[in-house]
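Forum: Protein Structure Q&A
Topic: Joint prediction for protein chains with partners

I've read a bunch of threads here and the consensus seems to be that you should model interacting components together rather than docking separate models afterwards. I'd like to see that in practice. Below is the full input, 562 residues plus whatever partners are listed. Could one of the regulars post the assembled result?
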Amino acid sequence: MRKFTSYLLIGYFILQLAVPGYFVYRHYNTLYTGESYKFEVAPYDPYDPFRGRYVSLRSSLSLYSSDGEYAMLEKDSAGYAVISGWQSWKPKEGQYIKSPKLNRYYMNEKMAPEAERIHRGLDLDEDTIYLLVKVKNGDYVIEGLYINDVSIEQYIVQT
Amino acid sequence: MNNREWVRIESERWVEDGIITPEQRELIQMRYPVNKTGGPLLLFFAIIGSILIGAGIILVFATNWWRLPVAVKIILAFIPLLAAQGVCIYTFMKRFHSISFREGSGVFLSLSFFAVLALIGQVFHTQSELESYILICILFTLPGVYLFHAKAAMAIYIVGAIFVGWSWPVWVTILLTALILPFFYLELVSASHKGVPNYLLFLLSIMVSNTIIVAALGELEMLEIALICGLAILLLDALFRKIGSVYFFTTAKFLSILCITVTILLAAFDLSYSDNISVMGFVFVVVIAGAYIALRYTTFSGLASTDLFAASAMILVLSAQMAGVVANLLIMAMGTYYIVRGSRTLTLSNLNFGMALIILIIGIRFFDSSLDLLGRGIVFILLGSAFLGINLHISRKRKGLLK
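Posted by a regular:
Agreed with the consensus. Here's the joint model:
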């Protein structure tokens, strides 16, 4: 009985490691081999009790459709993402993301309110603020939040 | 120092002083063995310690998190889980008999799984909702709850299940409840301490009530749901007592009595209240109350106070068009029953509960402007006479007993 429980325990521990391991594999793969897209955003500053402080983002693109739909992605001349259309079936070619949600970017609890304050002080005719997202086979991972091509963390430290 | 440790130390002195022989001391020690697994205080410290370590690890990692490369963050994210698994393996191999170690390891394992997913979610800025995250976490911590008989980690599961139950389809809540039910059964039949069944049954009552509320909300009225919850808890009590838990279900009994009494009181507010109870609500109440009463009578002898509440719930839904009037009569009857019982057995809690019910119903009717003053006056005189009659009856009976 104890031997059986030991096997169960080992199996359970492997499963417990496999779940975050799978998430890491998928996201890491997308992050380093995916295609980059910029999404124009505006940050503000809420709080997640488990995962900590993040900036919530409002995208200038309309990213919401009914659940389960695929957004077909293209780029404009400046590298910003443009949604060329929606499909209810998995596209065979081109980059796409399924039910995209780009509404949170996790930050240090001191930096998150700073990000909101900096955004309020930006001149949006001259300054740019965007989310750099890596996309591969429908998966997407946020690489960073950038102001004038400088990561927001560096920007806060510099200012 | 607990009593058993005191006996162990003192008996050694008794042997030295020649009061008892070493053999007698051995017999005494066999009768009162010292609990080597540690007392509840040690258990409490083990659980709190595990929670603090888990929380501390998260906070330490959170400082300057953004400066670290992604690969380093990933490695750091796995450390709490690997550490918890290491502690669990040690507990399993060496200290499985220790409740403190089992409970502490269970909590540490649960929290570290929450932590690793949260950290990875943060590293990759995943956009998943809080409810999805908690659902995954509680599902993957559940085997640990079973493997380590971890009752504190089970509480984390239950809080999580209740939280996610409100945002996912009903079947998820029912599934999450069904997944933890065997744990309650296993722990209740093997419980060796009176506090354990009460703790388990309290959490079970909360979980079952939440499941009923989530499942019935929108389908049934709140009054029906409250009645069903109260009766379901009573039924659970009877079922688990039948299975083998001999301890009295105090906390859950209190919860069920509260649910049923408050429901009947709410119905009693309006005398003209007619209960347009749904067929589903009616069937649930009658079936659960019937099952409870049947189970009680086939398993336990004698009338219990809880039977009164089950029967009252049944009568209330059966009264349909007369629900308001019947609710008033039920509260009066319940109040009178508890006053009589309290004065007979000299139990102050029963007496107070009965008096509270009577005062509440009198208060409700006294301010009831839908009744004319004369009507209220007559009802109050009749009620007053009835009370004086009961009082006289009890006094005569007591005098008779004294003679």
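The longest helix of chain A spans residues 2-33.
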